[in-house]
Every structure is written in C-alpha cells, then in structure tokens.
C-alpha cells in the first residue's frame, strides 16, 4: 500500500515536472559562457533584426562550423513599419537571453502592443528551416474569465467555428506562393454575446500548408485543454502562433476579415439549414480586405412565408369573447396569447394603433389588460405551417434573443393568424418590430 502511494506521488511529481517543462521555451544543452557556440549565437543575434527587414519579414541563417554551428530564423508579422519589426526582434532576443541563458536552443514569439508588432526568433544547434516543430508548446491567457450570464457553451460553438475559419484563411496560400508571410490571417468576428472577437494565426512560411494546419490545430487544442474559459490568450509552437482576444490584436484592423459567427453557430447543431459558403467550399480563399458579412439568420426562415395579407373575416369577432385566455406554453416564460386577447389589446387591429408595416407583416401597438404596452407583429400569412412548427420557430426566437434587443413576450397562433408579441420599448427603432432585425 505504502509503495502504491509513493508511486502515485512520484507520478504526480512527474506530471508537475512535465507541465513546468512544457511552459518553458528553452531547450537543448547548456553552452559555456565564452564558448565558440556563444560567440556564434551572439553574432547571429546582432544581424538578425536588420536581415529580417531586408528580406521582407522572414530570414533564415546559420553561422559557424561543425558542432558550434548555430542555425537561426526570424519572422515579423504583417502590416506595420519596419522599425516596429526591428524593435520586436530585438526585444525577443533580449527576452530569450534572459529567460534561457546559455541554452543552445530556444524559440520566442513576442508581441509588442505598443508598436502593433509581433515576431518570432528561433535558434538551435541543428537546422531549423523548413522543419515543422510541434514541441515545446507555450501558452498564455487573459486572467479574466468568461462569466455568467454569458453562455460558455454558445461561446464555444462560435469560437470553434471562428478558429476553423481563421485557420482555413491562414493556410489557404498555394504551395508555390512566393509571398514571404503567406501563412497569416487576422479575423474580427461578431459573436452572439461578444460584439468583437479577434483572432490571429501565423505559421513560418518555410513549412507546407498542411503542416501549418497541423501546427495551428495543436496550438488551438493546447489552449482549449489548458486555458479554456479565459477571455483571451495565445498558444505558441516553434512553427506557429495563435492568439485571440476581445480587443484588437496588433492593430491589424487593416485588411482584416470581418465575419459574423452568429448564424453559423446557431445553425450548427441543427444541421445545415443555411448555406455556408466558407464551410462548404474548403478551398475558397478569404482574401485580404474582403468584408465577408454573412448575414443569414435562421429566423429568416420564419418569414419566408411572406404572402398576401389575409382579408379580415367575421370569424375573428367571435374570438372577442376569449379575451383573457393567456397561458404559459411548454413551461417556458413565454406566453401564448389568444387571438381574442390580441384583438382586444389592439382594438381589433385598428388603424390608429398601426405602428408600421414591412415585408413580413404589420405592427400594431396594444395594451394588455394589466396595462403593459406591447407591439404586435402580425405576420403576413400563407405559410400553412403547423402549430408545432410555428411554436418551435418562436421558441428558437426566444433563445436567439439578445438582451439589448426588444423582448419577445409571446406569440399567438390561431387559424391563419401568426402573431408575435413584443414588449413595446418607447423610443426604440420601429425597424426592430417591423423588419425583424432584432431577431
Ligand atoms: C545539439 O546539442 C545536443 C546537446 O544539447 C546534442 O546532443 C546534439 O547532438 C547537438 N546536435 C548537433 C546537430 O550538433
Ligand atoms: C568571458 O570573456 C570576457 C572577456 O572576453 C571576460 O571578461 C570574462 O571573464 C569571461 N568569462 C568567463 C566565464 O570566462
Ligand atoms: C534558408 O532555408 C533554405 C531552405 O531551407 C535554404 O536553402 C537556405 O540555404 C537557407 N538560407 C540560409 C542563409 O541558411
Ligand atoms: C492590404 O491590402 C492591400 C491590397 O490588397 C495591400 O497593398 C496592403 O499591403 C495590405 N496591407 C497589409 C497590412 O497587409
Ligand atoms: C472545425 O473543423 C473540424 C475539422 O475540420 C470539424 O471536425 C469541426 O466540426 C469544425 N467545427 C466547427 C465549429 O465548425
Ligand atoms: C503555382 O502553381 C500553379 C499551378 O499549380 C500555377 O498556375 C502558378 O503559376 C504557380 N505560381 C507560381 C508563382 O509559380
Ligand atoms: C496600433 O494600432 C492602433 C489601432 O489600429 C492604432 O490606433 C495605433 O496608432 C497603432 N500604433 C502604432 C504605434 O502604430
């Protein structure tokens, strides 16, 4: 028994060691302070920054001979002044020397938010160029976490979709592309609960696009396994860099792909009801500067049945008697209103109560018996949807609602009538009600 405990303790210790080791970006043996290797490395360092900018952002080199030969490479991100690149590379060298003194091998991705710059330096006693390296990983995260009432589950769906999109964009350069910084992508996305999510991915250009993909996937996975729940973070490997945040990264607002993840993530669990060009067409390149606003709200489905207005008929008068019928549907906090209640609230859809009219129907102002003011959207009918389908759509709408937008109180579905009932917000744009943009 005692032995078993010792074994378990020892294993934990080993695990801890592994974890600590994984956090470090220093590797290889130690070299002596005034050794030839040390001189070669210093000489490599001294020329790195100027050579990177002279070579459009990526440079690989080697100095020395035999076992003292030092191989190195450096890379600068895209889209900022040369001096920022020089500053960044010099800072990375300095950090490397402080963190990994006298180590033969190291890599360091550095970001300088003050210059909007990011860069990589890497060196070893073996060739580092054209070689995918997936070890050691390093990670960092924002100490703030995503808290309730934000849904981490919804966030994960949108976040994963965004990583796929960014990765696809970062690795879409053709194999023979001569662009120096070809494996690079920055995307700004709109999530359901976060207006701006920024993601950046970059690989060194000396590897294959499939290797870049592998490297970035590993970075993303490392982040998910270790820092999931943080409001931002980064994952690094010798061959690639991944970062995401809720604020702009490296000032890369220029040439940034802008996408909306909202519809994408919401349609995911229900299968493809909406065409998603980016997902369907794997090879499609999202070009720099493309504004890819993908506005395909599922809820449009709800309004697809735009048809002719039905003509008032006498039948409705009869419902007038059921004025106070109103009950909870499906145990949700949403109400099902009787047509009588709606007619009473809107004074039989009187023209005086009409707030506006749009393609999807007409909106009326109304007052419930309890005094609450409502906006009633009377959908243009003709869909012939079953009660269950309409209820499902409405329940989907309720889940889609954003807290800053107009609140959906309930619905009414009787005969041909399909009606949505909203809270009436004074001074709120009528368009919310009329055109369904709030959905
Ligand atoms: C690099 O250094 C390590 C010791 O840190 C040594 O085992 C290895 O053989 C060296 N590689 C080359 C190519 O010299
Ligand atoms: C390394 O060389 C410098 C001068 O070249 C000397 O001052 C220093 O003492 C040396 N360090 C060691 C550890 O030999
Ligand atoms: C840089 O890498 C390429 C491809 O691996 C190699 O052919 C070239 O010699 C390297 N350049 C230097 C200066 O080492
Ligand atoms: C943005 O795109 C334009 C043209 O596509 C290009 O000339 C410019 O260098 C790009 N800027 C960055 C920062 O990539
Ligand atoms: C992302 O891509 C992976 C592999 O290509 C796929 O399995 C996964 O479903 C995708 N996730 C999302 C959210 O699109
Ligand atoms: C890259 O390859 C494609 C065909 O595979 C060819 O059409 C294109 O001209 C090549 N580009 C360069 C820069 O060599
Ligand atoms: C960095 O980017 C931000 C936002 O794009 C910009 O306001 C700022 O001036 C940039 N800083 C530098 C030093 O270029």
From TrEMBL:
Membrane topology classification: Single-pass membrane protein
What is a single Pfam family found in this protein's UniProt entry? PK_Tyr_Ser-Thr
Write out the annotated subcellular location. Membrane
| One term under GO cellular component | membrane
GO molecular function list: ATP binding; protein serine/threonine kinase activity
Please list the residue ranges annotated as the Protein kinase domain.
349-439
Q: Where is the signal peptide?
A: 1-24
Keywords from UniProt, A to Z, are: ATP-binding, Glycoprotein, Kinase, Membrane, Nucleotide-binding, Receptor, Repeat, Serine/threonine-protein kinase, Signal, Transferase, Transmembrane, Transmembrane helix
Q: Which Gene3D superfamilies does the record cross-reference, listed alphabetically?
A: Gnk2 domain, C-X8-C-X2-C motif, Phosphorylase Kinase, domain 1
PROSITE patterns given for it? GNK2, PROTEIN_KINASE_ATP, PROTEIN_KINASE_DOM
Domain Gnk2-homologous residues, every copy: 19-128, 134-249
Any stretches that span the bilayer, and where are they? 291-312
**Mind telling me what this protein is named?**
Cysteine-rich receptor-like protein kinase 39
